């Protein structure tokens, strides 16, 4: 089944049930993405798994997404000067939040948080991405799919831990990567890079204690992609020097 056939099968299967709640789109990678509302998610997932024409037996991944500041660019990596910080184009975005800073998550025109599911049909050899937006930004909630795909157990715990998305119906929704006493959710774009608290061993109390973070905020500059060949000659000279060295040693 190719992408077009899968898109048609999805549209015909869910047309009467979800009409305005499902969007079928082919992205640049030839994949299909559908968007489902939380209230219809379980019914759609069950049909995706059990319908003979779809048969998405395997859940590959569940991940959270924070769409605040979606589409904004803080750094330019395609063209930048060789020195300094001229590559910064939007220095006030959430990548360098300090305590007390805030961001506006409503400018993108979409709900801030979403849970994204990647499904595989072994029977038909096709893949599907399902996006479920959380309706409430303050308390993002989506239904758990653990009863449909038990593999969702740790995936949903990870998404809860890192994004704060609550998977309603999960039997054991605890943190899985951060400490149980950790404050906040690290992958939210309003979470400062330096964190809120730090942990150390206290010699007097003879135990590990938490204290306000003492690390200063820092600017993280990403790798710059340069396709203008400025280093090609240098690489050739280095390779030639290495060959000459090997020959002289011989």
| Main β-sheet description | 5 strands, mixed
One letter per element, helices H and strands E, the order comes to HEEHEEEEHEEEH
Number of helices: 4
Terminal CA distance reads 60 Å
- List segments where confidence is low: pLDDT < 50 over at least 5 consecutive residues: 92-100
Helix % is 10-25%
Q: How many strand segments? A: 9
Mass-distribution shape:
extended
Gyration radius from CA atoms, angstroms: 24 Å
Secondary-structure content class: alpha/beta
User: What is the residue-averaged pLDDT?
Assistant: 79
Across the major sheet, the strand order is: 1-2-5-4-3
In terms of DSSP E residues, the strand content is: 15-25%
Question: What would you say this structure looks like, in words?
Answer:
- The strands form 3 sheets. Strands 1-2-5-4-3 form a 5-stranded mixed sheet.
- It is extended and about 60 Å long.
- The protein is built from 4 helices and 9 strands; from the N terminus they run H-E-E-H-E-E-E-E-H-E-E-E-H.
- Strand 1 (25-26) and strand 2 form a beta hairpin.
- By secondary structure, it is of the alpha/beta class.
């Amino acid at each position: 089944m190719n992408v077009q056939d899968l898109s048609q099968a999805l549209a015909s299967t869910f047309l009467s049930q979800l009409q305005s709640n499902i969007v079928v789109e082919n992205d640049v990678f030839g994949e299909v993405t559908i968007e489902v509302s939380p209230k219809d998610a379980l019914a759609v997932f069950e049909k995706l798994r059990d319908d003979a024409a779809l048969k998405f037996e395997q859940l590959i991944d569940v991940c959270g997404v924070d769409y605040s500041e979606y589409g904004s660019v803080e750094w330019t990596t395609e063209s930048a000067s060789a020195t300094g910080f001229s590559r910064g184009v939007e220095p006030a975005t959430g990548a360098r939040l300090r305590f007390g800073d805030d961001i506006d998550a409503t400018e993108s025109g979409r709900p801030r948080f979403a849970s994204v599911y990647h499904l595989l049909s072994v029977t038909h050899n096709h893949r599907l991405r399902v996006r479920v937006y959380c309706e409430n930004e303050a308390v993002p909630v989506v239904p758990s799919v653990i009863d449909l795909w038990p593999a969702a157990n740790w995936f949903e715990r990870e998404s809860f831990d890192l994004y704060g998305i609550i998977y309603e119906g999960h039997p054991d929704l605890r943190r899985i990567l951060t400490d149980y006493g950790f404050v906040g959710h690290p992958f939210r774009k309003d979470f400062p890079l330096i964190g809120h608290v730090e942990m150390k061993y206290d010699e007097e109390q003879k135990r590990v204690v938490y204290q306000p973070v003492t690390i200063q905020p820092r600017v993280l500059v990403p790798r710059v992609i340069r396709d203008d060949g400025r280093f090609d000659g240098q690489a050739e000279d280095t390779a030639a020097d290495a060959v000459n060295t090997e020959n002289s040693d011989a």
